[in-house]
Amino acid sequence: MKIILTHEVSGLGAAGDVVDVKDGYARNYLVPRGFAIRWTKGGEKDVAQIRRARKIHEIATIEQANEIKAQLEGTKVRLAVRSGDAGRLFGSVTPADIATAIKSAGGPEVDKRRVELGSPIKTLGSHQVSVRLHPEVAAKLGVEVVAA
């Protein structure tokens, strides 16, 4: 099935790309979550608009991405969250929480969709998070989750 991506999907493409995927993947995952729309001839007009919006938000060059990577890796991110006695959190830490914590720690502004969690953060302690700045550049960031 041919679809138009509306958001960046890791391993598939960036917003505005027209890609072919399996029917079930598109119907059951990408379209319901808003990551893609079905391709139509009228949808081709949407591609130009999506690409213009992407250019505003994307990091233009690898050099710029490397500068932001250096800033991120030098930033100490600390999140204070509510937790139980055993160190388990009430809920989990989301990419939006991490993006906000980076900004409040004095780091660069990062889009929450660029923060990639290997698995949900549900315990106190130190965790590694990846921030995909450019298709070729990803920053590894240490996040310390502490009790509030």
From TrEMBL:
It holds the Pfam family Ribosomal_L9_C. Keywords: Ribonucleoprotein, Ribosomal protein, RNA-binding, rRNA-binding. InterPro entries: Ribosomal_bL9, Ribosomal_bL9/RNase_H1_N, Ribosomal_bL9_bac/chp, Ribosomal_bL9_C, Ribosomal_bL9_C_sf, Ribosomal_bL9_N, Ribosomal_bL9_N_sf. GO terms for biological process: translation. The keyword NAD does not apply. One of its GO terms (cellular component) is ribosome. Residues 13-40 form the Ribosomal protein L9 domain. The keyword RNA-binding applies. One of its GO terms (molecular function) is rRNA binding. Belongs to the bacterial ribosomal protein bL9 family. Binds to the 23S rRNA. This is Large ribosomal subunit protein bL9. It comes from Streptomyces purpureus. The gene is rplI.
